[in-house]
Amino acid sequence: MASRIEPPLALLAEVTHRCPLRCPYCSNPIELDRASHELPEQEWRRVLTQAAALGVLQVHFSGGEPMVRRDLAALIGEASRCGLYSNLITSGTLGGERELQTFAAAGLKHVQLSFQDSTSNGGDRIAGLPRAHEKKIAFAKAVRAVGLPLTLNVVVHRQNVAGLAEMIEMAVALQARRIEIAHVQYYGWALANRGALLPTREQLDAATGLVETTRERLKGVLTIDYVVPDYYAVRPKSCMNGWGRQFLNVTPAGKVVPCHAAQTIADLVVPSVRDGSLADIWYHSEAFNRFRGTGWMPEPCRSCDRREIDWGGCRCQAFLLAGDASRADPVCSLSPDHSIIETARQEAQSLSHAFAYRHYG
Amino acid sequence: MDRLVVSAASILRLAPHIVFRFDETRQRWIMMAPERLMLPDEQAVEILQLMDGQTGVGTIIDTLAARYSQAPRELIARDVTAMLQDLADKGVLADGVTD
Ligand code: SF4
Ligand code: SF4
């Protein structure tokens, strides 16, 4: 097999897990990295330099809330010096115009700001933080005031999807050029809260219909990116466009993984930026090579004509739900484990609203 | 914000925060926009290189028509306008004269 390994396109730099919010679907692992384990500025600079040399084009500064780090502007500056196109993924609850000015001066190209709902009541409850929504609105205005392009990111689920139309209007009013509407993906915290989050089939169809008509109406004004919940799909999503094909993720403590959830795969030996260069890790580590390409696949993927389209779906989901990261993603109706998904869907029809908020264990 | 409609009279430039550059690793031209990476084909690269915020779309079409005299001008005009409209809808282009 061994087709040529292409260099990665993007780096997700999770500079911290600290965050003032407590979203019940947070994509951070249940075992959050503590501040004392975070890579210091010098090591992040080295990571950025190595990423650019490896062929990475875009860096997404993320977390947690990346703005808790005092050296964020310095890191953005380093990314720019290396020729990386940089994006800030933030909750917008720390700082405002003054910080954004420094980031823009350091070469930041774009801000992606999360919202939890279209209203303060809903937003603050889901974020688990009073006044979060109001701070986000002010932050969005500050982004536009310093002239940076803005994307809103809203994670939708059973408890807020009814306000989707208002969320889209909010994006237009705040002069965002793009809105990313993502149904929750069920790993870590979200999996623990699945009963309270998974939408019903009716809710999903209504949301999808709304996105389709609105997309047409707002063409050229607002781009709508829509990620459907794979629990209702027949075939899985192409997770990260394939394991070790385009993305790499560096965690706060310097672990290097093919996707942000990969540390949930218990027996994966995860390399660290302290063990070797990013290039070494990308091309030669066991972790990145383990599910690359199609050679690792069992049936039904091995002989499926979609094996190079969805790459067998998500490895983490296979591990979490079927107990083995090398099985087909249970979301796929061809998977022998598909009944797990069917059960979850049925459970979604009976309502529950209580959240388990994220916290340090 | 209104939709930017491209015509022969338009004067266009890349929107701020769009990076169009040659990538040494991959030996090809790339265009980076917020959360989007585009790999323009040879034809698109040629058009983008002619776009400087001062030259009108009509003039760009003339230049290409002169370069590729075997293709009818209307065909070139249609392709160029469609490509630029598509980029404008993706938020990649801005008006060259205003702001
Ligand atoms: S999902 Fe919520 S809690 Fe998790 S990092 Fe983002 S803003 Fe913070
Ligand atoms: S069998 Fe495997 S490759 Fe085929 S659609 Fe399902 S997950 Fe994808």
Automatic annotation (TrEMBL), chain A:
Pathway recorded for this protein: Cofactor biosynthesis; pyrroloquinoline quinone biosynthesis
UniProt enzyme class: oxidoreductase
Cofactor: [4Fe-4S] cluster
GO biological process, one term: pyrroloquinoline quinone biosynthetic process
Record field: catalytic activity: [PQQ precursor protein] + S-adenosyl-L-methionine = E-Y cross-linked-[PQQ precursor protein] + 5'-deoxyadenosine + L-methionine + H(+)
EC number annotated for this UniProt entry: 1.21.98.4
Metal-binding listed as a keyword: yes
A GO MF term: iron ion binding
Domain of life: Bacteria
Cofactor binding, per record: Binds 1 [4Fe-4S] cluster. The cluster is coordinated with 3 cysteines and an exchangeable S-adenosyl-L-methionine.
Coiled-coil intervals: none
Keyword annotations of the record: 4Fe-4S, Iron, Iron-sulfur, Metal-binding, Oxidoreductase, PQQ biosynthesis, S-adenosyl-L-methionine
Binding site for [4Fe-4S] cluster: C19, C23, C26
InterPro entries (UniProt xref): 4Fe4S-binding_SPASM_dom, Aldolase_TIM, Elp3/MiaA/NifB-like_rSAM, MoaA_NifB_PqqE_Fe-S-bd_CS, PQQ_synth_PqqE_bac, PqqE-like, Radical_SAM_PqqE_MftC-like, rSAM
Keyword presence, Iron-sulfur: yes
Radical SAM core domain span: 5-222
Subunit structure, as described in the record: Interacts with PqqD. The interaction is necessary for activity of PqqE.
Purpose: Catalyzes the cross-linking of a glutamate residue and a tyrosine residue in the PqqA protein as part of the biosynthesis of pyrroloquinoline quinone (PQQ).
Membership in a protein family: Belongs to the radical SAM superfamily. PqqE family.
HAMAP family from the UniProt entry: PqqE
Full protein name: PqqA peptide cyclase
UniProtKB/TrEMBL annotation, chain B:
Pathway named in the protein's UniProt entry: Cofactor biosynthesis; pyrroloquinoline quinone biosynthesis
GO MF: quinone binding
Domain of life: Bacteria
InterPro entries registered for this protein in UniProt: PQQD, PqqD_bac, PqqD_sf
GO biological process: pyrroloquinoline quinone biosynthetic process
Key words, A-Z: PQQ biosynthesis
Key word Cell cycle present: no
Stretches of the chain forming a coiled coil according to its record: none
NCBIfam families in the cross-refs: PQQ_PqqD (TIGR03859)
Oligomer status and interactors: Monomer. Interacts with PqqE.
Protein name, per record: Pyrroloquinoline quinone biosynthesis protein D
Source organism: Enhydrobacter aerosaccus
